[in-house]
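Pipeline run #58 for the internal structure catalog. This entry was flagged by the ingest filter as a single-chain record with no existing model, so it goes straight to prediction. Upstream metadata was stripped on purpose; only the residue string is passed forward. Reviewer on rotation: M.T. Logging verbosity set to normal.
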Amino acid sequence: MPRPSLDTVMLSVACLLSTRATCSKRQVGCVLTDSRGRILSTGYNGVPAGFPHCTDTPCGGACQPAGSDTCEAVHAEMNAVADCHDVTRVHTCYVSVLPCNNCAKTLLNTNMEELVYLNDHEHSAQVLDFLKRGGISVRKCAI
C-alpha cells in the first residue's frame, strides 16, 4: 500500500480536529507544521474557555451570516497560533476550511510560507488574494 502524502495526512488530521469544534455555524481544524512536516500546534474553533459551547447554547452569532462580529468562536487558526510555542518555526498551515481574513492576518505574522486547505468559503477570493500578496504559497488539495 502506498504511503499517503504529507498533505493528505495533515489535512486528515485537520478534519479530525474539526470534529472537536463546538461552533454551531462551522467546524474547522488547523495544523501548524515546521519545515520538516512536524506538528508544532493544532486548533479547532469554539468559544473561549469557560463559556458555554455554542453546540449546547447558541451564541448571538449562531444564526448570523458568516463574518458576523456577534459570533463568539475563537477560530481554529487563532487557537493553533495561540498554542504554538514558537511561531517563528511555522512553515505550513493545514486547514480544513480556508482561513477568514482575520485569521489570514494572524498567520501572516508567523513565519508561515505555505497554506494548504481543503474547502472554500463565501469570501475565498478575497482571502486568497490577500495571502498571495503576503507572499504565501497557497494550495487547495483533496483528501
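catalog note: Strands lie at 29-33, 39-44, 92-97, 114-119, 137-140.
catalog note: The mean pLDDT is 94.
status: ready for reviewer M.T.
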